Amino acid sequence: MYADLALYIDGEWIAGGGRDSEKVINPATEKPLATLTHAGAADLDRALAAAQRGFKQWRATAPYERARIMRKAADLIRERLEPIARILTLEQGKSVAEARIEVAVSADIIEWYAEEGRRSYGRIIPGRVQGVRQMTVQEPVGPCAAFTPWNFPGVTPARKIGGALGSGCSLIIKASEETPGTCVEMVRAFHDAGLPKGVLNLVFGVPARISEQLISSPAIRKVSFTGSVPVGKHLTKLAAEGMKRVTMELGGHSPVIVFDDADPEKSAEIAAAGKFRNAGQVCISPTRFYVQENSYDRFVKRFVDYAKNLKLGDGLADGTTMGPLANPRRLDAMEGFVADARKRGAEIRTGGARHGNQGFFFAPTVITDMPEDCRVMTEEPFGPLAPIARFKTFDEVVARANALPFGLAAYTFTGSTRTANLISDALEAGMVGVNSLGISTPETPFGGMKESGYGHEGGIEGLEAYTQKKLVVQA
Ligand code: NAD
Questions:
Q1: pLDDT of 401-450, one tens digit each?
Q2: In a mutational test of the pocket of ligand 1, which residue from 210, 228, 229 has the highest number of ligand atoms less than 8 Å from its CB?
Q3: What structural domains does the chain harbor?
Protein backbone atom coordinates (compact mmCIF):
# COMPACT_ATOMS: atom_id res chain seq x y z
CA MET A 1 0.00 0.00 0.00
CA TYR A 2 2.94 2.38 0.65
CA ALA A 3 5.67 3.17 -1.91
CA ASP A 4 8.57 0.98 -2.94
CA LEU A 5 11.31 3.37 -1.80
CA ALA A 6 14.66 3.63 -3.57
CA LEU A 7 17.26 6.07 -4.83
CA TYR A 8 17.10 6.75 -8.57
CA ILE A 9 20.48 7.37 -10.17
CA ASP A 10 21.37 7.19 -13.86
CA GLY A 11 18.07 5.51 -14.67
CA GLU A 12 18.45 2.78 -12.02
CA TRP A 13 16.57 2.15 -8.80
CA ILE A 14 18.94 1.48 -5.89
CA ALA A 15 18.08 0.28 -2.38
CA GLY A 16 19.93 -1.47 0.43
CA GLY A 17 23.40 -2.77 -0.46
CA GLY A 18 24.76 -2.09 3.04
CA ARG A 19 24.02 1.63 2.83
CA ASP A 20 22.77 3.67 5.80
CA SER A 21 19.01 3.94 6.09
CA GLU A 22 16.20 5.43 8.16
CA LYS A 23 12.59 4.62 8.93
CA VAL A 24 9.72 6.58 7.42
CA ILE A 25 6.97 7.15 10.01
CA ASN A 26 3.20 7.55 9.55
CA PRO A 27 2.42 10.72 11.55
CA ALA A 28 -1.15 9.58 12.24
CA THR A 29 -0.11 6.34 13.93
CA GLU A 30 3.61 6.90 14.76
CA LYS A 31 4.23 3.47 13.18
CA PRO A 32 6.99 2.84 10.62
CA LEU A 33 5.89 2.64 6.97
CA ALA A 34 9.13 1.61 5.28
CA THR A 35 12.90 1.86 5.31
CA LEU A 36 14.60 4.51 3.19
CA THR A 37 18.09 3.92 1.81
CA HIS A 38 20.57 6.80 2.08
CA ALA A 39 22.90 7.79 -0.72
CA GLY A 40 26.60 7.67 0.17
CA ALA A 41 29.31 9.94 -1.25
CA ALA A 42 30.00 7.47 -4.11
CA ASP A 43 26.29 7.42 -5.02
CA LEU A 44 26.28 11.20 -5.20
CA ASP A 45 29.37 11.19 -7.42
CA ARG A 46 27.54 8.78 -9.73
CA ALA A 47 24.50 11.05 -9.72
CA LEU A 48 26.68 14.06 -10.60
CA ALA A 49 28.30 12.23 -13.50
CA ALA A 50 24.91 10.97 -14.68
CA ALA A 51 23.40 14.48 -14.50
CA GLN A 52 26.25 15.81 -16.67
CA ARG A 53 25.69 13.13 -19.29
CA GLY A 54 21.93 13.53 -18.98
CA PHE A 55 22.24 17.28 -19.51
CA LYS A 56 24.16 16.85 -22.78
CA GLN A 57 21.51 14.55 -24.15
CA TRP A 58 18.46 16.45 -22.85
CA ARG A 59 19.74 19.81 -23.96
CA ALA A 60 20.17 18.43 -27.47
CA THR A 61 16.63 17.01 -27.43
CA ALA A 62 14.10 19.25 -29.22
CA PRO A 63 11.72 21.05 -26.85
CA TYR A 64 8.87 19.39 -28.76
CA GLU A 65 10.18 15.92 -27.81
CA ARG A 66 10.99 17.00 -24.26
CA ALA A 67 7.42 18.21 -23.89
CA ARG A 68 6.07 14.91 -25.20
CA ILE A 69 7.92 12.91 -22.53
CA MET A 70 6.99 15.34 -19.77
CA ARG A 71 3.32 15.33 -20.76
CA LYS A 72 3.38 11.54 -20.73
CA ALA A 73 4.81 11.62 -17.19
CA ALA A 74 2.06 14.06 -16.14
CA ASP A 75 -0.57 11.74 -17.63
CA LEU A 76 0.89 8.74 -15.77
CA ILE A 77 0.75 10.71 -12.50
CA ARG A 78 -2.93 11.44 -13.23
CA GLU A 79 -3.62 7.76 -13.98
CA ARG A 80 -1.95 6.81 -10.69
CA LEU A 81 -3.53 9.65 -8.72
CA GLU A 82 -5.35 7.51 -6.16
CA PRO A 83 -2.41 5.31 -5.06
CA ILE A 84 -0.04 8.31 -5.02
CA ALA A 85 -2.50 10.37 -2.95
CA ARG A 86 -2.73 7.55 -0.41
CA ILE A 87 1.07 7.35 -0.20
CA LEU A 88 1.16 11.12 0.36
CA THR A 89 -1.37 10.92 3.19
CA LEU A 90 0.35 7.95 4.80
CA GLU A 91 3.72 9.70 4.97
CA GLN A 92 2.67 13.32 5.46
CA GLY A 93 -0.66 13.18 7.29
CA LYS A 94 -2.91 15.57 5.32
CA SER A 95 -6.42 14.38 4.46
CA VAL A 96 -6.61 12.24 1.35
CA ALA A 97 -8.95 14.84 -0.19
CA GLU A 98 -6.14 17.42 0.09
CA ALA A 99 -3.60 14.85 -1.12
CA ARG A 100 -5.66 14.15 -4.27
CA ILE A 101 -5.70 17.85 -5.10
CA GLU A 102 -1.95 18.06 -4.52
CA VAL A 103 -1.21 15.13 -6.85
CA ALA A 104 -3.52 16.54 -9.54
CA VAL A 105 -1.84 19.97 -9.27
CA SER A 106 1.60 18.32 -9.44
CA ALA A 107 0.64 16.79 -12.80
CA ASP A 108 -0.68 20.18 -13.96
CA ILE A 109 2.59 21.86 -12.99
CA ILE A 110 4.65 19.33 -14.99
CA GLU A 111 2.35 19.77 -17.98
CA TRP A 112 2.56 23.57 -17.74
CA TYR A 113 6.38 23.49 -17.80
CA ALA A 114 6.36 20.92 -20.61
CA GLU A 115 4.32 23.29 -22.77
CA GLU A 116 6.05 26.48 -21.69
CA GLY A 117 9.45 24.95 -22.52
CA ARG A 118 8.36 25.04 -26.17
CA ARG A 119 7.96 28.82 -25.90
CA SER A 120 11.39 29.70 -24.52
CA TYR A 121 11.79 32.58 -26.94
CA GLY A 122 14.77 34.85 -27.60
CA ARG A 123 14.64 38.25 -29.29
CA ILE A 124 16.23 40.30 -32.07
CA ILE A 125 17.64 43.68 -31.08
CA PRO A 126 18.15 46.23 -33.89
CA GLY A 127 21.84 46.74 -34.67
CA ARG A 128 23.55 50.13 -34.81
CA VAL A 129 25.11 49.27 -38.15
CA GLN A 130 23.11 48.09 -41.14
CA GLY A 131 23.38 44.34 -41.73
CA VAL A 132 24.28 43.56 -38.11
CA ARG A 133 21.89 41.21 -36.38
CA GLN A 134 21.88 41.02 -32.57
CA MET A 135 20.05 38.09 -31.01
CA THR A 136 19.47 36.78 -27.54
CA VAL A 137 18.83 33.09 -27.03
CA GLN A 138 17.72 31.28 -23.87
CA GLU A 139 19.88 28.33 -22.91
CA PRO A 140 19.40 25.85 -20.07
CA VAL A 141 21.86 26.61 -17.23
CA GLY A 142 23.11 23.03 -16.84
CA PRO A 143 22.77 20.27 -14.25
CA CYS A 144 20.81 21.54 -11.23
CA ALA A 145 20.40 20.47 -7.60
CA ALA A 146 17.10 20.81 -5.73
CA PHE A 147 16.07 20.26 -2.12
CA THR A 148 12.43 19.91 -1.11
CA PRO A 149 10.66 19.72 2.29
CA TRP A 150 8.02 17.51 3.85
CA ASN A 151 4.92 19.73 3.81
CA PHE A 152 4.11 19.40 0.07
CA PRO A 153 5.84 16.19 -1.06
CA GLY A 154 4.16 16.37 -4.49
CA VAL A 155 3.82 20.00 -5.54
CA THR A 156 7.26 21.21 -4.43
CA PRO A 157 9.25 18.51 -6.28
CA ALA A 158 6.91 18.98 -9.29
CA ARG A 159 7.85 22.66 -9.49
CA LYS A 160 11.56 21.92 -9.42
CA ILE A 161 11.47 18.88 -11.72
CA GLY A 162 9.15 20.71 -14.13
CA GLY A 163 11.20 23.92 -14.22
CA ALA A 164 14.51 22.13 -14.71
CA LEU A 165 13.39 19.58 -17.30
CA GLY A 166 11.09 21.98 -19.13
CA SER A 167 13.98 24.34 -19.78
CA GLY A 168 16.38 21.55 -20.87
CA CYS A 169 18.37 21.14 -17.63
CA SER A 170 19.10 17.87 -15.85
CA LEU A 171 18.38 17.60 -12.14
CA ILE A 172 19.46 15.85 -8.96
CA ILE A 173 16.66 16.23 -6.45
CA LYS A 174 16.92 15.45 -2.75
CA ALA A 175 13.36 15.17 -1.57
CA SER A 176 12.46 15.04 2.10
CA GLU A 177 13.52 11.88 3.93
CA GLU A 178 10.35 12.18 6.04
CA THR A 179 8.01 12.09 3.00
CA PRO A 180 9.95 10.31 0.24
CA GLY A 181 7.27 8.09 -1.33
CA THR A 182 5.37 10.73 -3.30
CA CYS A 183 8.51 11.95 -5.08
CA VAL A 184 9.62 8.35 -5.73
CA GLU A 185 6.28 7.78 -7.49
CA MET A 186 6.55 10.98 -9.52
CA VAL A 187 10.07 10.05 -10.61
CA ARG A 188 8.76 6.58 -11.50
CA ALA A 189 6.26 8.27 -13.83
CA PHE A 190 9.14 10.00 -15.66
CA HIS A 191 11.05 6.72 -15.84
CA ASP A 192 7.99 4.96 -17.28
CA ALA A 193 7.41 7.84 -19.70
CA GLY A 194 10.81 7.13 -21.27
CA LEU A 195 12.92 9.95 -19.85
CA PRO A 196 16.55 9.34 -20.88
CA LYS A 197 18.71 8.14 -18.02
CA GLY A 198 20.68 10.71 -16.05
CA VAL A 199 18.24 13.56 -16.79
CA LEU A 200 16.48 13.15 -13.45
CA ASN A 201 18.11 11.65 -10.35
CA LEU A 202 16.56 11.27 -6.91
CA VAL A 203 18.61 10.92 -3.73
CA PHE A 204 17.98 10.81 0.02
CA GLY A 205 20.33 10.90 2.98
CA VAL A 206 21.75 13.32 5.54
CA PRO A 207 20.56 16.69 4.13
CA ALA A 208 23.63 18.72 5.14
CA ARG A 209 26.04 16.16 3.67
CA ILE A 210 24.15 15.89 0.39
CA SER A 211 23.77 19.63 -0.11
CA GLU A 212 27.44 20.23 0.70
CA GLN A 213 28.66 17.62 -1.80
CA LEU A 214 26.26 18.55 -4.59
CA ILE A 215 26.51 22.33 -4.31
CA SER A 216 30.31 22.31 -4.10
CA SER A 217 30.58 20.20 -7.26
CA PRO A 218 31.52 22.25 -10.35
CA ALA A 219 28.99 20.15 -12.29
CA ILE A 220 26.02 21.83 -10.59
CA ARG A 221 25.06 25.20 -12.10
CA LYS A 222 21.93 26.06 -10.14
CA VAL A 223 20.44 25.37 -6.73
CA SER A 224 16.76 25.46 -5.82
CA PHE A 225 15.59 25.07 -2.23
CA THR A 226 12.27 25.21 -0.42
CA GLY A 227 12.42 25.25 3.37
CA SER A 228 13.35 27.39 6.33
CA VAL A 229 15.12 30.76 6.23
CA PRO A 230 18.27 29.60 8.13
CA VAL A 231 18.84 26.60 5.82
CA GLY A 232 18.14 28.81 2.78
CA LYS A 233 20.80 31.30 3.88
CA HIS A 234 23.28 28.46 4.45
CA LEU A 235 22.70 26.95 0.99
CA THR A 236 22.89 30.40 -0.65
CA LYS A 237 26.34 30.88 0.92
CA LEU A 238 27.47 27.46 -0.38
CA ALA A 239 26.18 28.35 -3.86
CA ALA A 240 27.94 31.74 -3.80
CA GLU A 241 31.33 29.98 -3.62
CA GLY A 242 30.77 28.70 -7.16
CA MET A 243 28.76 31.78 -8.31
CA LYS A 244 25.78 29.47 -8.86
CA ARG A 245 22.32 30.84 -9.26
CA VAL A 246 19.77 30.10 -6.61
CA THR A 247 16.02 30.02 -6.20
CA MET A 248 15.06 30.23 -2.54
CA GLU A 249 11.47 29.63 -1.44
CA LEU A 250 11.69 30.19 2.30
CA GLY A 251 9.42 30.79 5.26
CA GLY A 252 6.81 33.44 5.78
CA HIS A 253 4.46 34.93 8.37
CA SER A 254 1.55 36.04 6.23
CA PRO A 255 -0.67 38.82 7.58
CA VAL A 256 -4.41 38.81 6.84
CA ILE A 257 -5.97 42.27 7.02
CA VAL A 258 -9.74 42.42 7.30
CA PHE A 259 -11.27 45.89 6.86
CA ASP A 260 -14.64 46.92 8.26
CA ASP A 261 -16.04 47.20 4.72
CA ALA A 262 -15.61 43.43 4.16
CA ASP A 263 -18.11 40.77 5.23
CA PRO A 264 -16.61 39.55 8.55
CA GLU A 265 -18.26 36.11 8.53
CA LYS A 266 -17.40 35.32 4.92
CA SER A 267 -13.81 36.55 5.41
CA ALA A 268 -13.50 34.43 8.56
CA GLU A 269 -14.61 31.31 6.72
CA ILE A 270 -12.20 31.83 3.82
CA ALA A 271 -9.35 32.72 6.19
CA ALA A 272 -9.99 29.77 8.53
CA ALA A 273 -10.19 27.30 5.64
CA GLY A 274 -6.80 28.61 4.47
CA LYS A 275 -5.36 28.58 7.97
CA PHE A 276 -6.14 24.94 8.73
CA ARG A 277 -5.28 23.53 5.28
CA ASN A 278 -2.49 20.98 5.73
CA ALA A 279 -2.77 21.72 9.49
CA GLY A 280 -1.17 25.12 8.87
CA GLN A 281 2.08 23.62 7.56
CA VAL A 282 2.14 25.83 4.49
CA CYS A 283 4.69 28.56 3.77
CA ILE A 284 1.93 30.90 2.52
CA SER A 285 -0.45 29.95 5.33
CA PRO A 286 -2.29 32.95 6.79
CA THR A 287 -0.62 33.38 10.18
CA ARG A 288 -1.38 36.82 11.70
CA PHE A 289 -4.93 38.10 11.54
CA TYR A 290 -5.57 41.83 11.86
CA VAL A 291 -9.27 42.68 11.96
CA GLN A 292 -10.63 46.24 12.04
CA GLU A 293 -12.27 47.02 15.38
CA ASN A 294 -15.95 47.07 14.35
CA SER A 295 -15.75 43.63 12.70
CA TYR A 296 -13.46 41.97 15.24
CA ASP A 297 -15.99 40.16 17.45
CA ARG A 298 -18.01 38.75 14.54
CA PHE A 299 -14.84 37.61 12.72
CA VAL A 300 -13.44 35.88 15.83
CA LYS A 301 -16.73 34.14 16.58
CA ARG A 302 -17.06 32.65 13.10
CA PHE A 303 -13.37 31.70 13.01
CA VAL A 304 -13.64 29.88 16.37
CA ASP A 305 -16.79 28.05 15.20
CA TYR A 306 -14.97 26.93 12.06
CA ALA A 307 -12.01 25.62 14.11
CA LYS A 308 -14.28 23.75 16.52
CA ASN A 309 -16.09 22.04 13.64
CA LEU A 310 -12.97 20.56 12.08
CA LYS A 311 -12.69 16.81 12.39
CA LEU A 312 -9.19 15.71 13.35
CA GLY A 313 -8.15 12.22 12.40
CA ASP A 314 -6.13 9.90 10.22
CA GLY A 315 -6.10 11.48 6.78
CA LEU A 316 -7.31 8.21 5.25
CA ALA A 317 -10.38 8.00 7.53
CA ASP A 318 -13.76 9.09 6.23
CA GLY A 319 -14.76 12.61 7.19
CA THR A 320 -11.32 13.77 8.37
CA THR A 321 -10.90 17.48 7.64
CA MET A 322 -7.55 18.00 9.40
CA GLY A 323 -4.78 15.44 9.78
CA PRO A 324 -1.87 15.27 12.20
CA LEU A 325 1.23 17.45 12.06
CA ALA A 326 3.90 15.87 9.92
CA ASN A 327 6.50 15.25 12.62
CA PRO A 328 6.97 15.49 16.39
CA ARG A 329 9.12 18.65 16.04
CA ARG A 330 5.99 20.56 15.01
CA LEU A 331 4.10 19.34 18.11
CA ASP A 332 6.87 20.60 20.38
CA ALA A 333 6.93 23.88 18.47
CA MET A 334 3.11 24.35 18.85
CA GLU A 335 3.33 23.72 22.59
CA GLY A 336 6.11 26.32 22.85
CA PHE A 337 4.12 28.98 20.93
CA VAL A 338 0.98 28.42 23.01
CA ALA A 339 2.87 28.40 26.34
CA ASP A 340 4.58 31.67 25.42
CA ALA A 341 1.27 33.31 24.41
CA ARG A 342 -0.43 32.13 27.64
CA LYS A 343 2.43 33.43 29.76
CA ARG A 344 2.12 36.80 28.00
CA GLY A 345 -1.58 37.08 28.91
CA ALA A 346 -3.24 35.77 25.74
CA GLU A 347 -6.61 34.08 25.71
CA ILE A 348 -6.86 30.65 24.02
CA ARG A 349 -10.36 30.70 22.49
CA THR A 350 -10.20 27.08 21.32
CA GLY A 351 -7.59 24.32 21.09
CA GLY A 352 -4.16 25.02 22.55
CA ALA A 353 -3.10 21.43 23.22
CA ARG A 354 -2.29 18.06 21.69
CA HIS A 355 -5.23 15.99 20.59
CA GLY A 356 -5.40 12.30 21.57
CA ASN A 357 -2.46 10.22 22.68
CA GLN A 358 -1.37 8.62 19.43
CA GLY A 359 -0.18 10.42 16.33
CA PHE A 360 1.13 13.99 16.07
CA PHE A 361 -2.26 15.70 16.39
CA PHE A 362 -2.61 19.26 17.64
CA ALA A 363 -6.02 20.89 18.03
CA PRO A 364 -6.91 23.83 15.76
CA THR A 365 -6.15 26.83 17.95
CA VAL A 366 -7.42 30.41 18.03
CA ILE A 367 -5.55 32.93 20.17
CA THR A 368 -6.63 36.48 21.04
CA ASP A 369 -5.41 39.33 23.26
CA MET A 370 -1.73 38.43 22.78
CA PRO A 371 0.97 41.12 22.72
CA GLU A 372 2.32 41.97 19.25
CA ASP A 373 5.82 40.79 20.13
CA CYS A 374 4.88 37.32 21.42
CA ARG A 375 6.43 34.38 19.57
CA VAL A 376 3.37 33.33 17.57
CA MET A 377 3.14 36.85 16.11
CA THR A 378 6.82 37.07 15.19
CA GLU A 379 8.13 33.55 14.40
CA GLU A 380 6.69 31.37 11.65
CA PRO A 381 4.28 29.02 13.48
CA PHE A 382 3.99 26.39 10.69
CA GLY A 383 1.05 24.75 12.40
CA PRO A 384 -2.67 25.18 13.22
CA LEU A 385 -2.40 28.38 15.28
CA ALA A 386 -4.42 31.51 14.49
CA PRO A 387 -3.62 34.64 16.49
CA ILE A 388 -6.27 37.34 15.84
CA ALA A 389 -5.58 40.99 16.71
CA ARG A 390 -7.55 44.26 16.40
CA PHE A 391 -6.52 47.31 14.40
CA LYS A 392 -7.90 50.82 13.95
CA THR A 393 -6.34 52.57 10.96
CA PHE A 394 -4.88 51.76 7.55
CA ASP A 395 -1.43 53.20 8.31
CA GLU A 396 -1.23 51.42 11.64
CA VAL A 397 -2.06 48.00 10.14
CA VAL A 398 0.36 48.43 7.24
CA ALA A 399 3.18 49.18 9.69
CA ARG A 400 2.29 46.11 11.78
CA ALA A 401 1.96 43.85 8.71
CA ASN A 402 5.34 44.95 7.32
CA ALA A 403 7.18 44.82 10.66
CA LEU A 404 8.68 41.32 10.29
CA PRO A 405 11.69 40.30 8.19
CA PHE A 406 9.46 37.94 6.14
CA GLY A 407 7.76 38.95 2.88
CA LEU A 408 6.16 35.91 1.28
CA ALA A 409 2.36 36.25 1.14
CA ALA A 410 -0.18 38.74 2.48
CA TYR A 411 -3.97 38.77 2.27
CA THR A 412 -6.63 41.38 2.62
CA PHE A 413 -10.41 41.46 2.71
CA THR A 414 -12.15 44.66 1.70
CA GLY A 415 -15.22 45.79 -0.23
CA SER A 416 -13.40 48.84 -1.61
CA THR A 417 -11.35 48.75 -4.81
CA ARG A 418 -9.44 51.83 -3.68
CA THR A 419 -8.47 50.18 -0.36
CA ALA A 420 -7.52 47.00 -2.27
CA ASN A 421 -5.20 49.01 -4.53
CA LEU A 422 -3.65 51.01 -1.70
CA ILE A 423 -3.03 48.03 0.57
CA SER A 424 -1.65 45.78 -2.16
CA ASP A 425 0.82 48.57 -3.06
CA ALA A 426 1.79 49.03 0.59
CA LEU A 427 2.31 45.40 1.65
CA GLU A 428 5.87 44.05 1.53
CA ALA A 429 5.06 40.60 0.18
CA GLY A 430 5.83 38.68 -2.99
CA MET A 431 2.18 37.66 -3.36
CA VAL A 432 -0.97 39.50 -2.25
CA GLY A 433 -4.43 37.94 -2.20
CA VAL A 434 -7.39 40.34 -2.20
CA ASN A 435 -10.61 38.70 -0.99
CA SER A 436 -9.00 35.37 -1.86
CA LEU A 437 -6.30 33.04 -0.59
CA GLY A 438 -5.83 31.39 -3.98
CA ILE A 439 -2.44 32.79 -4.93
CA SER A 440 -0.66 29.67 -6.13
CA THR A 441 -1.28 28.14 -9.56
CA PRO A 442 1.07 26.53 -12.12
CA GLU A 443 0.70 29.60 -14.37
CA THR A 444 1.52 32.33 -11.84
CA PRO A 445 4.87 33.31 -10.29
CA PHE A 446 5.37 32.15 -6.71
CA GLY A 447 8.10 33.77 -4.63
CA GLY A 448 8.96 36.03 -1.73
CA MET A 449 10.61 39.31 -0.78
CA LYS A 450 12.90 40.16 2.13
CA GLU A 451 14.09 37.06 4.03
CA SER A 452 11.35 34.92 2.48
CA GLY A 453 13.54 34.26 -0.47
CA TYR A 454 14.79 35.01 -3.89
CA GLY A 455 13.45 34.14 -7.34
CA HIS A 456 10.23 32.52 -8.47
CA GLU A 457 8.73 29.19 -9.34
CA GLY A 458 5.67 28.83 -11.54
CA GLY A 459 4.69 31.01 -14.49
CA ILE A 460 7.17 32.02 -17.16
CA GLU A 461 9.44 33.18 -14.32
CA GLY A 462 9.74 29.59 -13.09
CA LEU A 463 11.12 28.49 -16.42
CA GLU A 464 13.42 31.49 -16.81
CA ALA A 465 14.99 30.59 -13.47
CA TYR A 466 16.60 27.57 -15.16
CA THR A 467 17.77 29.39 -18.28
CA GLN A 468 20.52 31.85 -19.06
CA LYS A 469 20.63 34.42 -21.82
CA LYS A 470 23.26 34.40 -24.51
CA LEU A 471 23.83 37.29 -26.90
CA VAL A 472 24.86 36.44 -30.45
CA VAL A 473 25.95 39.30 -32.72
CA GLN A 474 26.26 38.56 -36.45
CA ALA A 475 28.01 41.12 -38.63
P1 NAD B 1 14.76 22.48 9.01
O2 NAD B 1 14.94 23.92 8.92
O3 NAD B 1 15.90 21.69 9.56
O4 NAD B 1 14.44 21.82 7.60
C5 NAD B 1 13.66 22.41 6.61
C6 NAD B 1 13.90 21.59 5.32
O7 NAD B 1 15.24 21.78 4.90
C8 NAD B 1 13.77 20.07 5.52
O9 NAD B 1 13.15 19.54 4.36
C10 NAD B 1 15.20 19.57 5.62
O11 NAD B 1 15.37 18.26 5.12
C12 NAD B 1 15.94 20.55 4.75
N13 NAD B 1 17.31 20.77 5.20
C14 NAD B 1 17.74 21.04 6.46
N15 NAD B 1 19.08 21.24 6.48
C16 NAD B 1 19.50 21.11 5.20
C17 NAD B 1 20.77 21.23 4.55
N18 NAD B 1 21.89 21.57 5.25
N19 NAD B 1 20.83 21.03 3.21
C20 NAD B 1 19.72 20.72 2.50
N21 NAD B 1 18.50 20.62 3.05
C22 NAD B 1 18.39 20.81 4.37
O23 NAD B 1 13.57 22.16 9.98
P24 NAD B 1 12.17 21.43 9.90
O25 NAD B 1 11.87 21.01 11.29
O26 NAD B 1 12.12 20.38 8.85
O27 NAD B 1 11.21 22.60 9.53
C28 NAD B 1 11.18 23.73 10.40
C29 NAD B 1 10.80 24.96 9.74
O30 NAD B 1 11.14 25.00 8.38
C31 NAD B 1 9.32 25.17 9.74
O32 NAD B 1 8.90 25.70 10.96
C33 NAD B 1 9.14 26.15 8.63
O34 NAD B 1 9.39 27.44 9.13
C35 NAD B 1 10.23 25.81 7.67
N36 NAD B 1 9.73 25.06 6.51
C37 NAD B 1 9.34 25.79 5.46
C38 NAD B 1 8.83 25.15 4.35
C39 NAD B 1 8.37 25.94 3.17
O40 NAD B 1 7.52 25.45 2.42
N41 NAD B 1 8.91 27.12 2.91
C42 NAD B 1 8.74 23.76 4.34
C43 NAD B 1 9.17 23.03 5.44
C44 NAD B 1 9.68 23.71 6.53
A1: 999 999 999 999 999 999 999 999 999 999 999 999 999 999 999 999 99
A2: 228
A3: 7-250+452-474 (3.40.605.10), 254-441 (3.40.309.10)
